[in-house]
Every structure is written in structure tokens, then in C-alpha cells.
Design brief:
Length: 274
């Protein structure tokens, strides 16, 4: 007996090459860029240009936003990651710093565990709480007794896996303005030489990981105008329930020696190694 996930993978790999070799007709009328950001399928701008509504992009003032979550998109990679702009939380203006807080439950997105860090800047204890008020990360900074000389104003902690939501919480604060944020590790290393410089930013880049819901993918496969060109790409059901406990997800890749968009018909092209 073939297990359902394996059976599904076999169906994808053996999908007949009867679909049109042309680009999907409905995608021909879709805009591929918003400002300077390229929007590859399964994301899309406009009616019926994305694989489902979670991947729908709204272009506002030449800036792309995830329509259902209202997060500004900085760039999208077909390796299953994307960078978004996320608020820096501060105790000086708590209401404003929570303007674009995102809760990713029931979505095909998670905060990347390997490419983000939690950081706290100020003087006190910093906690990052999950949806059930249990701590998922924490760190502590220290000041002298006069709160004038800060000995360790910067602290950081790793991101837990399958992170969908977090809320900052503070204790024993000794300074008026304190900052807590989830931030892309690479951007942090390149741009924040002095931790206090975080006060100059209202938003920072954060990396999300994405995967397509299986139901949406099966609908795409049944629609031959969007079917996968099976000889140059593979699609597999995610081995973990990172993205959703109730809805399995699928991720596609071009096979070795090919590059391009594995979510499009003949989207993977051979690489010239000469």
C-alpha cells in the first residue's frame, strides 16, 4: 500500500506532459514587478495571478505588500524564503511600534529559525512571548546603579522553530526607551555595528519561510495551464508541520542542472556549464 504523501509525490513526478508549452494564459496578463521588487509565481499581483490568496500581493505606492497580512515585502526567493519589513518595538511609543505586528497562525508562512535573531537594547529584562504567554526567548542587559553607564546594553537570543507569533514583554526596566525586535541576522551583522543604532530604525528586515498549501497545489496541478513540467522539477510534501498542523504543504525545486521557477510550466531551464 502506498502511503498518501508518497502517492501524491508519484502523481506529481508522473504528471503527463499534455499541458500547453506556453506560459499560463492567465499569468500573461499579470504584472511581475512592483517598484523594484520582482514578484515570482506562486506569488502574484492582481486577480488570479497568485496560487491562492495567501500569496496575493498588493502594490501600494510602488511597494509590494502581502495582501492578507499587510506586511511590506522586500524580496522573494524561490528557495522558500522572503524578506519583509517588520516593526521595531520600543517602550517610547508602544502603540506606534505595534502597527504592523503579524500573527502567522493558519498561514503558509513562519519566521525563519536560522536567519533571524531576537535582540533587546536598553537596560532590563527582555522577553519574547508566544501566543499562550509562554516565553520563547529572553535576554537580560545590565546598567550601573546610577543608570548612567550601561555595561551590557545589548543582548540576543535564538529563534525557536515553527515560530508563528511573538509579543515583546519587559521587566525591571531602568531606562525610558528600550527596544526589542526580531531581525534578519545578516542585516544585523552588516548594518548594526553599534547596538544603540537600533533607535534610528522604525522597521527592520525579517526573513519568513513559505510553502504552498497542498490543497492549493493540487488545484494548480489539475489546471493544466499551471501544471509542473515534471522532467526538470520535483515537488514534495513538507516533512514537518511547521507551517500548519491542519494543512500539509508542498515545496518545489528545480532538479540538479536546472534553474528557474519550478512552480511554472517549463519554468526550470538547463544550466550551461561551459
Amino acid at each position: 500500500m502506498i502511503i498518501p504523501s508518497l502517492q501524491f509525490l508519484i502523481i506529481l513526478l508522473l504528471w503527463p506532459e499534455t499541458a500547453s508549452a506556453q506560459a499560463p494564459a492567465l499569468l500573461q496578463n499579470c504584472t511581475s514587478k512592483c517598484g523594484d521588487v520582482t514578484i515570482p509565481f506562486p506569488f502574484g499581483i492582481g486577480y488570479d495571478c497568485s496560487i491562492d490568496l495567501w500569496f496575493a500581493i498588493e502594490c501600494k505606492r510602488n511597494k509590494p505588500y502581502l495582501r492578507n497580512i499587510d506586511l511590506e515585502v522586500l524580496d522573494i526567493s524561490l528557495d522558500g524564503t522572503m524578506r519583509v519589513s517588520y516593526s521595531v518595538y520600543n517602550t517610547c511609543d508602544r502603540n506606534k511600534s505595534l502597527e504592523n505586528t503579524a500573527y502567522l497562525e493558519s498561514t503558509p508562512f513562519i519566521f525563519s529559525q536560522t536567519r533571524n535573531k531576537f535582540i533587546g537594547v536598553g537596560c532590563g529584562k527582555f522577553f519574547f512571548m508566544s501566543y499562550d504567554d509562554s516565553p520563547i526567548a529572553q535576554c537580560t542587559t545590565t546598567c550601573d546603579n546610577n543608570n548612567k553607564t550601561q555595561e551590557n546594553i545589548y543582548c540576543q537570543d535564538a529563534v525557536v522553530s515553527t515560530l508563528k507569533r511573538y509579543d515583546p514583554y519587559f521587566e525591571d526596566l531602568k531606562t525610558a526607551c528600550n527596544y526589542a525586535v526580531l531581525v534578519e541576522q545578516q542585516w544585523l551583522d552588516d548594518n548594526l555595528k553599534n547596538p544603540l543604532d537600533i533607535k534610528n530604525f522604525t522597521h527592520v528586515p525579517v526573513v519568513l519561510e513559505w510553502s504552498v498549501f497542498r490543497l492549493s497545489f493540487e488545484t494548480m496541478v489539475k489546471n493544466k495551464s499551471k501544471s509542473i513540467y515534471q522532467s526538470s522539477s520535483t515537488c514534495e510534501i513538507s516533512a514537518c508541520s511547521c507551517f500548519s498542523n491542519n494543512f500539509p504543504t508542498v515545496r518545489c525545486n528545480c532538479i540538479h542542472g536546472f534553474e528557474g521557477n519550478p512552480y511554472l510550466l517549463e519554468g526550470c531551464r538547463g544550466i550551461n556549464f561551459e
